[in-house]
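Contributing new records

If you add data, match the layout below exactly. Sequence lines come first and carry their own label; structure lines follow with theirs. Keep one chain per record. Anything else will be rejected by the validation script.
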Amino acid sequence: MTLEPNPQSVTRNPQSEVVVSVRGLTKVFKDFWNRPKARAVDNVDFEVRRGEVFGLLGPNGSGKSTTIKLLLGLLYPTKGHIDVFGHSPRHVKTKARIGYLPEESYLYRYLDSRETLSFFGNLFHLNKDERTNRTEQLLEMVGLNQTRTRTVGEFSKGMQRRIGLAQALINDPDLIILDEPTAGLDPIGCREIKDLIIALARRGKTVILSSHLLSDVEDVCDRVVIYYGGRIQAMGTLKDLLATPDTVRITTPVLSRETLGRVLEVIRHDVASDKVHVDNPTQNLESYFLDVVNKARAAAKETSGAQSGAKVAAYLRGTGEEKPATDKLLEKLSLPQAAPVAAVPVAQAQPSVNEKKLDALSQPTASAPAKPAQPEKPVDLAKADEKLSSLLGKPK
């Protein structure tokens, strides 16, 4: 007989480096007259460390999305302080180390999967070979390898979430912020996204996850905060928050009736009979669903939708190419502005101009020789009307 630990209580050991530090964060939205309208975030404090999966939980309107926008530098805090990798969230080089999947995927609907990832890779100045390599790995990872020629506008919501996640990882970010990453995904996709999050955390990346699907948060998060009314109402590890200290679970193989009777007799010496429950453990619906689908896939059943993803992309596992050393564009934006360089005259880039024609065009029209006036011909109204009628009567 063995005590079975709760698998969700086994947490990773994040390294001590603080990636995100929030102190006294407050955001008050105001109306046109500068009067306080809503206190979305109210005096919030927390830290997120390297290699940690950190969950933001709370009902609608509790301040989760506002906190994410503040962390991304999209909103300015009314009061308080935010550090991301030791810098302001608006620091340009810091933004290059962040991958973000918004709640709604804002993608160019007329681009296909490869063009979408190539576009976002180009924003980070990845060279062509690197963009192509990462694009192939990401499409394979998120299960869109068979739909690469379809435009994003034709995708279902779940498939758009898959390509949205791929674009959030194209730059191999150190901090990944995911807002409802499994919304619209089928159970297979949900499981793969959760496995990917765990794999990224084990590699030392930091993940901040906001979701209303508490089972997903429970599967992957090390620590969570629970918002209500813009304030943090609870914070801690899942092991501490979910543990029931006055209950013990004992799991054993199937016992004979006599052995089970003796065990229950020993337990009932110390515990009242109505406090002891014996039943058979059951698997959750997700596990059963995945088992059914795996059997169908093994039987070579076909589907025209998203395929099951493969392993984590090599460059995300750290076994592929290294990240680019420095982004030249970001480096230029971060440095002080140099003296302006003299612009090249536009005339040098234009084709040569025919000066004689230009002079002729610039002369007054009176200097041009007048053409002899032609006598006006009388108009035959009957013939013109007959011709117009025949033209209007013709089919197009």
